[in-house]
Write a structure and sequence with these properties.
This protein has 149 residues and is mainly α. It has five helices and no strands. The longest helix is centred in the N-terminal third of the chain and has 40 residues.
Length: 149
């Protein structure tokens, strides 16, 4: 009977603990959104508002793993969208939470183009070296001697 009680308590703890952790995460994201939006609405710049909200979300999360900036930005965005009436003034600031994805895609395409050009130059260089070797093989030592008539 004693062993059964221990198993029951252990099972209940396993089931209930994640619920408490999830609640604190949701609360942290919600209050992080309040911090960010209130500061932005108050005239603060993006960086200071973001730093304050992100710091709060990181501290509230706790645990072994910290919240990444992308996760915190997603939490703020989700909260603002979920509670549109409460944060209607904050929607205009959400674009600053996420980097310019078009710019990132353009930079990646440019990097791919440069790599492709480098590969093409290497292929052309190897082809020219091969042609030069073949041309050199056609000439014998006699044809290269200056005074051999």
């Amino acid at each position: 009977m004693q062993k059964f009680k221990k198993k029951l308590i252990f099972t209940i703890l396993i089931i209930v603990t994640p619920l408490f952790l999830q609640t604190s995460k949701v609360k942290a994201g919600s209050f992080g959104a309040e911090i960010f939006c209130t500061m932005r609405d108050g005239g603060n710049d993006h960086e200071s508002s973001w730093d304050a909200a992100y710091t709060y979300i990181k501290k509230q999360k706790g645990g072994i793993f910290k919240v990444s900036p992308k996760q915190a930005a997603a939490q703020i965005t989700e909260t603002v969208i979920r509670e549109r009436e409460k944060f209607s003034y904050c929607v205009e600031y959400l674009d600053n939470l996420h980097p310019n994805r078009k710019l990132i895609r353009d930079l990646e395409k440019e990097e791919e183009r440069k790599e492709k050009e480098a590969k093409n130059r290497e292929v052309k260089r190897k082809r020219l070296e091969k042609e030069l070797e073949e041309t050199n093989e056609e000439f014998t030592d006699e044809t290269l001697e200056r005074y051999s008539y």
